Amino acid sequence: MTRHSLSLLLRNEPGALARIVVLFSSRGVDVSSLSLAPDGSGALSRLDVVVDLQPGRTPEQLVKQLGRIVDVKSVVDRTHDEALELGA
């Protein structure tokens, strides 16, 4: 398995997080860590998640699949961000 850190911006709508979790479950994605917090306006939330991907699965595939969910505004793979590696 390979570990990846993703950051998503999603609408604060009922079922938005559930749709993401269903996608993870159906693709065999294991969630190691999850943090969800609303932005200042309350219209959007930031979801930071650390996932383990099965062999043969790429983070690019997952980012594309997440981007197709109607409530997701953006997805960024932050696996190699320096601040995350340093634990800041």
TrEMBL record:
Domain ACT, residue spans: 5-80
Species per Swiss-Prot/TrEMBL record: Lentzea fradiae
MF terms (GO), sorted A to Z: acetolactate synthase activity; acetolactate synthase regulator activity
EC number: 2.2.1.6
GO CC terms: cytosol
Enzyme class of the recorded protein, top EC level: transferase
A Pfam short name: ACT_AHAS_ss
Transmembrane segments: none
Name of the protein in question: acetolactate synthase
A GO BP annotation: L-valine biosynthetic process
Subunit structure: Dimer of large and small chains.
Catalytic activity: 2 pyruvate + H(+) = (2S)-2-acetolactate + CO2
